[in-house]
TrEMBL record:
Heme binds at C421. SUPFAM superfamilies: Cytochrome P450. GO terms for molecular function: heme binding; iron ion binding; monooxygenase activity; oxidoreductase activity, acting on paired donors, with incorporation or reduction of molecular oxygen. It comes from the Eukaryota. Belongs to the cytochrome P450 family. CDD domains: CYP71-like. It comes from Eleusine coracana subsp. coracana. InterPro entries: Cyt_P450 (IPR001128), Cyt_P450_CS (IPR017972), Cyt_P450_E_grp-I (IPR002401), Cyt_P450_sf (IPR036396). Coiled coil: none annotated. Its cofactor is heme. Keywords: Heme, Iron, Metal-binding, Monooxygenase, Oxidoreductase, Signal. The gene is ga12604. This is Cytochrome P450.
Amino acid sequence: GYSSQSSSSRSEKQAPLRLPPGPWQLPVIGSLHHLLLSRSRHGGDLPHRALRDLSRAHGSLMTLRLGSVPTLVVSSAEAAREVMKTQDAAFASRHQTPTLDAFSHGGRDILFSPYGDLWRRLRRLCVLELFTARRVQSLRRVREEEAARLIRSVADVCDVGDLMCRAMNDSVARSAVGSRCARRDEFLRELHRAASITGGFNLADLYPASWLVRRLSPALREAQLCDRNVRAIMAEIIREDRGEEDHLLAVLLRLQRDGDDDVDCPLTTEIITTVIMEIFAAGSETSSTTLEWAMSELVRNPRVMHKAQAEVREAFKGQHKLAEADMEKLTYLPMVIKETMRLHMPVPFLLPRVCRETCRVMGYDIPVGTKVLVNAWAIARDERYWEDPETFKPERFETSSVDFKGADFEYIPFGAGRRMCPGMALGLVNMELALAVFFTTSTGRLPRGRMNNLT
Ligand code: HEM
């Protein structure tokens, strides 16, 4: 198995590696059967739930083998702090899969790039150019216009949840590439498809070293096709860009045009395309599913709904337009969003890291190349850190200083450390404004909550 293989590759004199415990494994499929069994028990496709149950039996550092991929599952705040803070540098690379490789063109991107020069350059761009407080501020007009559009359309549709999703997507789209993308629906459909191809358990990703599996894999072919479609739409957007606006694509194209001082990692159009694509992917669905969950929690908790509504109506009393500046008056609404993300972690396992060098974590050895999943979903519902963890109670944040900025490891919806989400501030203002809009207009029509039956 995995354990004897990794210890035999070490020199004779060294003690064998002490791997974190885990459930028993089968030849070829490894630990997959545990996930499949749990899936049939829970009646849904919820690996974060299955892995929480397994970690209760095996511990907060747990070894699995998913197909041929050695995997470490991290399920406590203490272990997450070890991996994402104490030893952040050792875990600052992403785990690559063949399908992700198809979209990132060999890891030449921001979300999944290995820890190295290109990532460092793109990350610097994100932090210093794309997602600065000033930029978030300068995109305010986009959000306010989208909010106004949302108000007008809430009046004539009945699925508010669906509408919110569109509003989030439009807002991210306009921040990323300017005027709303003409082929938006098609584009989002393709991105959704990309997420399900790369996020699922397909043979190519489970057996990345097998040449035969790669050759025969429908997932890999589908990934390549989907990548081509997404890039064709992006190419159209770039062609049409007149460089007048302040959106993120314009910033990157300007940097490219104004001469590239970085000869080792030039900003090619291919890389710019990938980065913009990934900003869409990272910003749209995370924000829209959070809002959808917020709505369904509000429906289930009328007390919270009334309190949040009263606060918003008071803050915007007598105004005809929702101005973002007034959002600063709100204190309860941000807690509603915070609590929603605690219970419905938008990215339950964060984005998988990979161990770059064999290291020790809490007394166990983690071999180089191990894929690392941090079960942030399980940690945020753990009764060791949260009182009454399954209850939706925004007030818990009134007395608690726990925040999502990456320092409190019991609550890490945006991750932590070097690879933490750089789009947090933009995501938050987007979500807060859209939810406020809902309260100023809501006429008692409630969202259908596509996902109500999931957890
Ligand atoms: C509710 C909203 C959002 C959530 C919950 C979220 C969550 C995350 C998480 C968990 C990660 C991985 C962190 C880690 O490995 O420690 C991440 C990375 C990232 N996010 Fe977000 N995100 C959100 C919104 C956004 C938005 C709006 C943008 C951009 C417009 C964005 C851009 C990115 C990028 C570029 C990365 C990759 C960073 C890197 O690998 O260095 N995110 N996000």
